[in-house]
Amino acid sequence: MHEASAQLLSCLPSLRRYARALVGDRNSADDLVQDTLERGWRKLATRQRDGDMRAWLFTIMHNLHIDSYRKPAIATEAIDDDTIFPDAAGDHTQGLQLREMDRALAALPVEQREILLLVALEQMSYEQVAATLDVPIGTVMSRLSRARERLRLALDGRAAVSSLKVVK
């Protein structure tokens, strides 16, 4: 059991990074990671020993995240969270670019954002993403392609223009 708990803990940085990018704010991400680790710890005995621990935990996190959409939301008040992307050594341009990227990612549909983050941020293969999210590999590829295109358009500043209609 000691080796399994060490493996579980070694996945913590990846879980935190993915949760933060997935849900957007630090507190919700920490809650998601905590819930994921708690469920993973309880179900550790049922995990396939030859399976990838990280992929298994990402599957748990994905399911918990989806379940959170099904529950009624509790009204909360947002706290100013400018510490998400602090300006690096006074470089305001880099801080603005990071905020712009964060907004563009948040604007993606959840299905596309999940896949983009797993492939780009967590460097998972298409097969691992398909297994983690329980979708066909073709779905992973098409959602990833659409996510990349929407992100590119948003960062190029054309997303708002392309959604406008011509009225005569």
Segments where pLDDT lies below 50 for 5+ residues?
83-89, 159-166
Structural class: mainly alpha
Instruction: Please compute the radius of gyration using only Cα atoms.
Output: 18 Å
Give the beta-strand count.
0
Describe it.
By secondary structure, this protein is mainly alpha-helical. Helices cover about 70% and strands about 0% of the residues. It has 9 helices and no strands. The chain has helices at about 1-10, 10-25, 25-40, 55-70, 90-105, 110-120, 125-135, 135-155, 160. Helix 2 packs parallel to helix 4 (about 55-70). The longest helix is centred in the C-terminal third of the chain and has 20 residues, at about 135-155. Residues about 85-90 and about 160-165 have low confidence and may be disordered.
Can I get a quick summary?
With 168 residues, this protein is mainly alpha-helical. It has nine helices and no strands.
SSE layout:
Elements: H1 2-10, H2 12-23, H3 26-42, H4 53-70, H5 92-107, H6 110-121, H7 126-133, H8 137-156, H9 159-162
Tag the structure with descriptive keywords.
globular; mainly alpha; 69% helix; 168 residues; disordered C terminus
